[in-house]
Design a protein that fits this description.
alpha+beta; Immunoglobulin-like; five-stranded antiparallel sheet; 17% helix; single chain
Length: 575
């Protein structure tokens, strides 16, 4: 599948409706539950968890909850001691976020938002990056007055933009509830990007519409520069809303079935003239898209704008990222930049604008059939030339790889590039020493694509989480195939079959594949993306060639994979 669709292979909010009395009294009374709630967002809802840490000594009490689809969270703090630090861990548009906020007893029964702005507020109070404040647990003397003062100081710097977007002057960046609908404060979060240099303690706030920026030195709590240019801000946020609406239409088409590739609504979302996705033009892309059963129910949400340029009301361009939800589960993968173009005031999708498909993921595999070294871990490099433009090889370089990189050669028979000099397809097994040189998150790898000796294109891919160390893996970390046994698989000659399995805690179903073949190139395959609750699949594999002739089964294999909360794949295979 193409780059953006590779991830396909991979409860409403508990509202505090009985807290009026405790909200009025601050910390509540004995016997009454106390909660804190809020929105965790960074230009879109964060897909992940919120952790709260209290001021109990010597050992702080911590709790965590899953963030709802709209970014909301609620945590019961009845048995916890204020003040509190809270942290949101997760992803927006494939990018990893760890954002902090804080509250006191006065916030019990109320709101504690978690955004890049609250993270900066806390850092300026702490005089260090917010993570240090949280980890060291030295926030027991934090007061509501400090939080309000620092929130007001930041608001004053952002006020021109907030006012332009219709946000009330009285808003509290920490405590005012908001919705993730690209309006008001959420609209401001769409265009204000905050990055912090942990080494220097300097945070930069950039308006991606005007390109204006200011800095905050969190060690001194001082701001430099202003964000006072509002030209195009309102129009830019409107553009973001229009882009988001386009993705909603896209998702609606796949909500209960597959649209026809000639569906007028579907076609209206794309720019045919410029579209390119992993080497596919629009016709090839839609042909594949509208015939993939696994895409029924898929949604593309949490639109995060990376850059946007609107020349006027009629033309412009943007790069966005988004999260993919399938069968109710987020499919963790790295950032997938997606290009947009505005023509005559309408935004159209252009794909990733890549001439070929490239990606990588951290993978660990337990091979039941291997008795000596059954567990392998490393990186899988996905390179394809679906457009058939003649890419012959690819060289991947980055941490943990040989100095000259890893070379993959186009293997048309397998529809993907294979690593030279090994029999493991596109999986590159690594030693713990090599894995130890990879950054825990965010390591960047370079893919160079060649036609013969000529370099055609260079792309980069970000690894979300480094591979598991082999010494950290045991058989029980992998999916367990309870049926069939290895002996039963080897005796299978086609017909009806059932595969049953169990998953370790913390893993989510990813992909199931069963394969029978002979040694003359004939085969039959069953593939599916199991639902989160699935533990068994029944199907039929007939040993019939493409011309309708029966073949004698000489081998078979099963591949069952799941992924952890970081998107790392753990697979069990047998043959």
């Amino acid at each position: 599948m193409t780059d953006i669709w590779k991830v396909i292979r991979r409860a409403s909010l508990l509202l505090a409706t009985t807290l009026a009395m405790s909200a009025c009294s601050g910390s509540g009374t004995s016997g009454q539950s106390k909660t804190v709630s809020g929105t965790a967002a960074a230009g879109a809802p964060i897909i992940g968890t919120v952790t709260i840490k209290d001021s109990t000594t010597p050992t702080a009490l911590t709790k965590f909850v899953t963030i709802e689809a709209d970014g909301k969270y609620t945590i019961d703090v009845s048995d916890m001691k204020a003040p509190y630090m809270v942290r949101a861990d997760g992803y927006v548009g494939g990018n990893e976020y760890h954002l902090y906020s804080a509250g006191t007893a006065a916030d019990e029964g109320g709101t504690i938002n978690i955004t890049p702005l609250t993270d900066l507020i806390v850092a300026n109070i702490a005089g260090s990056v917010a993570q240090t404040y949280f980890d060291n647990g030295n926030f027991s003397n934090l007061t509501a007055i400090e939080l309000t003062a620092e929130a007001d100081a930041l608001k004053a710097k952002l006020l021109p933009i907030l006012q332009e977007l219709g946000v009330s002057d009285s808003i509290d960046l920490l405590r005012t509830s908001f919705n993730t609908d690209h309006t008001g404060l959420d609209g401001a979060l769409d265009i204000l990007k905050v990055t912090t240099d942990a080494g220097t303690g300097v945070a930069t706030i950039k308006n991606i519409i005007t390109q204006q920026q200011m800095t905050s030195n969190v060690t001194t709590g001082t701001y430099t520069g202003v964000l006072d240019v509002t030209t195009g801000v309102k129009e830019g946020v409107t553009d973001i809303q229009l882009i988001s609406e386009g993705f909603k239409k896209f998702s609606t088409l796949f909500a209960t079935g597959l649209p026809n590739e000639t569906n007028a609504t579907l076609l209206s979302l794309f720019d045919r003239d410029t579209f390119l996705e992993g080497g596919q033009d629009l016709d090839a892309f839609l042909s594949e898209l509208t015939t993939e059963p696994e895409l029924v129910g898929v949604s593309f949400t949490n639109i995060s704008v990376q850059s946007i340029e609107s020349n006027d009301d009629l033309s412009g361009s943007a790069v966005v990222a988004f999260d993919v939800i399938q069968n109710g589960k987020p499919l963790n993968d790295g950032p997938n930049p997606f290009h947009m173009i505005k023509k005559n005031g309408v935004w159209y999708m252009q794909g990733d604008q890549r001439i070929a498909s490239v990606d990588l993921e951290s993978v660990a595999e337990y091979r039941i059939s291997e008795t000596t070294t059954p567990i392998h871990t490393g990186l899988r490099f996905g390179v394809k030339d679906p457009g058939g433009i003649g890419i012959t090889s690819a060289v991947v370089t980055g941490a943990g790889l040989p100095d000259g990189g890893v070379t993959l050669t186009n293997n048309i028979a397998y529809d993907e590039f294979q690593i030279d000099g090994q029999n493991s397809g596109n999986f590159y097994a690594m030693s713990d020493t090599a894995i130890g040189t990879i950054a825990d998150t965010g390591e960047i790898y370079t893919f160079k694509l060649y036609k013969g000796e000529v370099l055609e294109k260079t792309y980069t891919e970000t690894n979300r989480k480094r591979p598991y160390l082999k010494t950290d893996l045991k058989v029980e970390n992998f999916p367990t195939i309870t049926s069939p046994t290895l002996e039963q698989l080897r005796a299978f000659s086609g017909g009806d079959a059932t595969i049953s399995w169990t998953l370790p805690a913390g893993l989510t179903n990813d992909w199931l594949s069963a394969h029978i073949y002979d040694f003359s190139g004939n085969s039959a395959t069953y593939e599916t993306s199991p639902l989160p609750a699935d533990t068994t699949k029944s199907f039929t594999l007939n040993a019939v060639t493409s011309t309708g002739q029966n073949f004698t089964v000489e081998g078979g294999s099963i591949w069952l994979s799941a992924y952890d909360s970081f998107g790392r794949q753990l697979a069990t295979s047998m043959w």
